[in-house]
Amino acid sequence: MQVHARRVCWRTVAGLSTRTHDPVGTFSSGMRQRVRYACALLPAPPLLVLDEPTATLDADGAALVDAVRAWQRERGGLLVVATNDPAEALWGDLAVRIDGRD
Predict the structure, then answer these.
(1) How far is 66 from 90, CA to CA, in rounded Å?
(2) In the chain, is it the N or the C terminus that has fewer CB atoms within a 10 Å radius of its CB?
(3) What residues are paired with 47 via a beta bridge?
């Protein structure tokens, strides 16, 4: 069951079905970011922490992040996002701004 879940996650969440036998080291930075999402989502965590979630991703990758965000919300999970992107800052029900200036 776990192996099947990994394959489904790889294909549907990461969107890398044509690269399942390629070493991850040969992937672009955006593709590696997708693999990180797949690994993070596989256990369906109650808390998902994303740091600059759309960094290095193309438009398709950003759409994947949006789907991840929606999925986490639908299942009642908690999402914490650290970002400098004003659009990403609007994703949550609560925003905390940390300004490092004195």
Answers:
(1) 12
(2) C
(3) 78
pLDDT digits (tens, 9 = 90+) for 45-66: 899 899 998 887 888 888 888 8
What is 2-89's CATH number? Answer: 3.40.50.300
Of 93, 89, 87, 90, which Cα lies nearest the Cα of 73? 93
What pLDDT score was predicted for residue 101? 62
Question: DSSP readout, 29-66?
Answer: HHHHHHHHHHHHHTT--SEEEEESTTTT--HHHHHHHH
Between the two ends of the chain, the Cα-to-Cα distance in Å is: 53
Burial (CB count within 10 angstroms: exposed 0-12, middle 13-18, buried 19+), residue 92: middle
CA-wise closest residue to 47 among 80, 74, 13: 80
- pLDDT tier, 1 (very low <50, low <70, confident <90, very high otherwise): very low
The secondary structure element, H or E, covering residue 7 is helix 2-8
